[in-house]
Amino acid sequence: MFLMVVFHPRILSLAIFLTLVVHAFAQNETQFIYNGFQGSINKLHVDGVATILPNGLLQMTNYSQRITAHAFYPYPVNFRPKHLSFSTTFVFAMYPQVPHYSGHGIVFVISPSTNFTTAFPHAYLGLLNPSTNGQKSNHVFAVELDTIQNADVKDIDGNHVGIDINSLISDDAAPAAYYSDKEKENKTLLLNSGKVMQIWIDYDEIEMLVNVTLAPFRHPKPSKCLLSYQINLSIILLDSMYVGFTSATGNTANFHYILGWSWNQSGKAQDFDHSKLPSLPQIKHHKESFKQLFFIVLLTIVILLLLLIVAAVWLLWRKKYEELLEPWEKDYSPNRFSYKDLFVATKGFKNSELLGGGGFGKVYKGVLPSTRDLVAVKRVSNDSKQGIKEFIAEISSMKRLRHRNLVQLLGYCRRKGELLLVYEYMPNGSLDKFLFGTDDKSVLCWSWRFKIIQGVASALIYLHEEWEQVVLHRDVKASNVLLDAEMNARLGDFGLARLYDHNNDPRTTNVVGTIGYIAPEISRMQKPTTSSDVFAFGMFLLEVGCGRRPIGKQNDVDIEDFFLSDWVYDYWKLGQILKASDPRMEGDYQEKEMELVLKLGLLCLHPKAEERPTMRQVVQFLDGSATLPDIAPEYDVQGGYSFGDACGTSGSITTSSGTASLGVMSSTNSALRYGR
Length: 676
Prior knowledge:
It is a single chain. This protein is α+β, with helices and mostly antiparallel strands. The chain contains 12 helices and 29 strands. Strands 1, 3, 4, 7, 14, 15, 16 and 18 form an 8-stranded antiparallel beta sheet that branches. Strands 2, 5, 6, 8, 9, 10, 11 and 17 form an 8-stranded antiparallel beta sheet that branches. It has a 5-stranded antiparallel beta sheet with strand order 19-20-21-23-22, with helices on both faces. Strand 10 and strand 11 form a beta hairpin. Helix 6 (446-466) runs antiparallel to helix 11.
């Protein structure tokens, strides 16, 4: 017997409809699109000053100062087990309150929460605050559209796009621009121009790659993205997250608008229906026409009345800030600072801002007026024009050096008979004050010393092998090793450095450097090499391990003609090399590491250049990936050299201030090093 069930046509239609609804709901779990936000007041979570206007325009901020705003998709989005990849795009516009002045920006955010009650405006964009910024527990991924350069979060400029991971200090950032496929070049976009723009953010979980693309509204998506950053978001994103936007203003303000938003976790984000997107309001700045006219007339009158006074003051100040600028320097203008900015930065080169001094000039602490960045400004006396063009060319080349263990050379300025070099500022000064200072509280523990040694070695590998040219530093020593805020080593002062192409010999040059660090072959051949840098690094190793200067009388050693290398070598021959270690550490060190450093120092100081290791071998010895060879018993008898002779303590040396006897010239009379 068969049971026949006959469905009524209305019941069948209802069943089909419910099936389609369920299917549509299943799709919407991984994708949605807002062609404007009209009717979305209950479909979008907003707080702060964020509001949805009657025409469907999402207004994030207004002209109020120091406010925050948030707008999020109201339901959490599931990223696991199979939806870690995503594609999103939104259309936005920013109106500044005052033309050419801005009030921070908009951030697209993926966050585990929509509670931002502790977030700050200003640089933190309504997302984080100074105490939470950078915390791994944030689990935040964001893309910022920022219109203010803020030093607190290390912004690159005042018109940029950045990828942020748990912090408003961007992991990757670029000035706002888009690629024109027609013109085959990048074209700048001004984020706070009031013009409508579109941004695409795509993440591929297989390639672990975030691509960010920007373009004017209605412009096709460019073939090349603005940012492409490799990141494994599986360690950042939780199973369930919220997606949306945060925004903030500072002391000046923007109107921030979002016209439409599309999201997809199963493919490309849907394109917008441009006809459905809301229009922007007619924005009028807060000044009425009459007041504007009155202000312009009044300002014109004041300018006319004061014109003679201003002209007179300008003529007087012109000589004060007058610079030396020759036609050939136009090629290096991006690397040049104005003397006026440096004068203001250092408070007129006051003694209160003095960091150190030497035979070649003085170094001052400064705060650049345009960016508020801390810098160190070295004033080098140089009345001679001979070779200055080549020197400026090399400064411009070395400005492009980028390494975590190098002090960044930012640029230069020329004025009359002096050259000014501008470096990034290192708050903890130079290493020598810790090694040779009399204050016991400044004594560095061994773990810090070993880390500093590894950092300097890493910097020298980069200079010798990894940059586009070979860079010979030619003055590696403790006083040229600067320490940043986290006590990381930064090799500084490229005043004596020279460049040459890989696989080429360096040109013959004068003997320059500091007594005690000059390789013996330099005084004979007057040709520096990477091996001569290794020699100086060897003396640096003994400085750090022993806490003593290379030559001269020491506090606890009653010998006028003291040579540190001889002294350490004598202890090695007795089998008691650890007795040469810094007595202030009182055994508070790893004996194997200390022995390695002292023996490696002796090996780097080998009188024969060909017997010294390369810096790459040095790093391998330090990290334990290679075994340090034994020191040969006849090490101190190489063609009549003793260690004292090998360290450049006899003969003469030519510097930019003349020729001096190596036997009488002290290290404090050598070229000025930033940080001394």
